[in-house]
């Protein structure tokens, strides 16, 4: 029996010329289809912005039916956040690279703080979608990873006697400063951003780290008296 224009093939491909071409190439099965959907959504995000990424548009780009997308993602937000996670992995690599470059824990804390701010400003849309939007499993994953990278550096500072006090509380204060430095700019048009972004990132990171040091000294002095 001839398929109608809205029917799908057995593997979920839309019964269209594009869908049939992709089926012959044996693409779109299981995890491979998921990767194709993520890639297509990423392209749409770059080309058309957040509003351009719809379940229908992604399905059409890959050549599958709309219901096939929901086999891999519960909703549009989950798909968007999954796309963004690929970029967030870059921040982890930057953090690890910094650890290999210095043995001074406070210098490492400053450099990791700079890396966080620069990363957010290098990827403003993906940062905003994950770090400032509705929470999903992706936002929790990102928040945990970023907090862990910074907390382990604060812990090394505490072990070296550079910082004093509650390591988790100090890390939380630093994270608040860094997130604020990024959010302050990405919610504005780039025409209003500072001309010297590297200097802005360095200044904001210095303020966060030195502020944590001042806070830890205040707490230390309070308990010593």
Structure report:
With 225 residues, the chain is mostly helical. It contains ten helices and no strands. It has helices spanning 17-24, 31-48, 55-62, 66-70, 76-99, 105-122, 124-131, 137-159, 167-186, 197-224. Helix 2 (31-48) crosses helix 3 (55-62) and helix 5 (76-99) runs antiparallel to helix 6. The radius of gyration is 23 Å and the shape is elongated. Mean pLDDT is 85; it is low at 1-11 and 15-28.
Offer a quick outline of the entry:
This protein has 10 helices and no strands. With 225 residues, it is mainly alpha-helical.
Features:
225 residues, mainly alpha, 10 helices, 71% helix, 0% strand, elongated, disordered N terminus
Blueprint (SSEs and pairs):
Elements: H1 17-24, H2 31-48, H3 55-62, H4 66-70, H5 76-99, H6 105-122, H7 124-131, H8 137-159, H9 167-186, H10 197-224
Helix pairs in contact: 2-3, 2-5, 5-6, 5-7, 5-8, 6-7, 6-8, 6-9, 6-10, 7-9, 8-9, 9-10
| Mean pLDDT over the residues | 85
The helix content, as a percent range, equals over 70%
- Taking the alpha carbons of the first and last residues, their distance comes to 88 Å
How many helices does DSSP assign?
10
Roughly how many Å is the radius of gyration?
23 Å
The ordered H/E elements are HHHHHHHHHH
What is the global morphology? elongated
Task: Give me the secondary-structure category.
Answer: mainly alpha
Major beta-sheet overview: none
How many E strands? 0
Q: Kindly estimate the percentage of residues that lie in beta strands according to DSSP.
A: under 5%
Q: Unreliable runs, pLDDT <50, ≥5 residues?
A: 1-11, 15-28
